Amino acid sequence: MKAIVKDKAEPGLRLMDVPEPSIGPGDVLIKVLRTGICGTDLHIRDYDAWAQQAVRAPLVLGHEFAGEVVETGPGVTDIAAGDLVSGEGHLVCGKCRNCLAGRRHLCRSTVGLGVGRDGAFAEYVALPASNVWVHRSPVDPDIAAIFDPFGNAVHTALSFPLVGEDVLITGAGPIGIMATAVARHAGARNIVVTDVSEYRLELARTVGADLALNVAQDTVEQGQRRLGLREGFDVGLEMSGRPEALREMIANMTHGGRIAMLGLPSRDFEVDFARIVTSMITLKGIYGREMFETWYAMSVLLERGLDLAPVITGRYPYRDFDAAFDDAAGGRCGKVILDWTA
EC top class, in one word (predicted)? Predict the structure, then answer.
């Protein structure tokens, strides 16, 4: 089968013929229909410092996907050939304290699909049935392919109650844009989104931001005044991983404000812990999705009218993966999709 592979310990990717994966008891074989390009995939293509530490070539990339079940292994009873599915890309041990307590998203032995083992940028992918999410309601395959990052957005945005709250979202990448749509759907009062890309700020406006603020030109404090906020933001969703973004968020939170942090910094940096203490601000780290409560919430949000279509801005046949990766890396985009049926 064809697959996009990090074949050597150097920058670049190749489209190669690789063996089709086999399945055993409890496994599911899936014909891939669509995949989404993630920032992780861009790091692996560039073979930066993180990728050099995290991956070993040869490796089939990809963890955002939707596909059709073609075969199930012995013991799989609730998934059938023909089902449209997505995959939870965090494979857990099932034996540690957190796994046994039903907190699989906190497993210390998590292995990432397309990072620690061969992934879904291929014509077929195999997964344990426990990592397969069946779409019981109709969903466009393009949307089903981005359930992984959509789950990051939902997990982050719904970490704290949003009804009637003033929300600050720092970082208008695809996940920040999806979080904006979720916050609007969930009943936030005012939503301010910050970035330095006018293209992505416009996407944020499209999905419901009350104010999309270019922080190269204006400050968050100025945004507060523009909306008439007197005491700061109730909820912060930090999606950028940028030191200056978190610092400005902390400086503009109300007393007792709550911050969910998904953006992954590239280095250590200082924050104003005195402000965090004296303002009694809550910081919560977010990684991945809660299995599978977040997935249930995602499906329900879509069933009740949440529209993610504006987030997808690029669609390419998988053979044009180089152009698709360039598009995703360029910054003037939302989510970029590879079509494995074209």
Answer: oxidoreductase
| Cβ neighbourhood burial of 311 (10 Å; 0-12, 13-18, 19+) | buried
d(CA 155, CA 178): 11
Nearest CA to 105 out of 151, 163, 67 is that of 151
Is residue 15 marked as binding? no
Rounded Cα distance, 168 and 211, in Å? 10
Residue 45 annotated as part of some ligand binding site? no
156 in the same domain as 136? no
Do residues 82 and 91 touch, judged by C-beta distance below 8 A?
A: no
- Phi and psi dihedrals of 43, rounded to 5? -60, -40
Domain that holds residue 25: 2-146+308-339
Residues annotated as catalytic are 40, 43
Summarised one tens digit per residue, pLDDT across range 106-131 is: 999 999 999 999 999 999 999 999 99
Residue 290 domain-assigned (yes or no): no
Consult the annotation and say whether 333 binds a ligand. no
Per-residue confidence (pLDDT) for residue 331, from 0 to 100: 84
Q: In 3-state terms, what secondary structure has residue 1? A: coil
Annotated ligand binding at 286? The verdict is yes
In a domain, 238, yes or no: yes
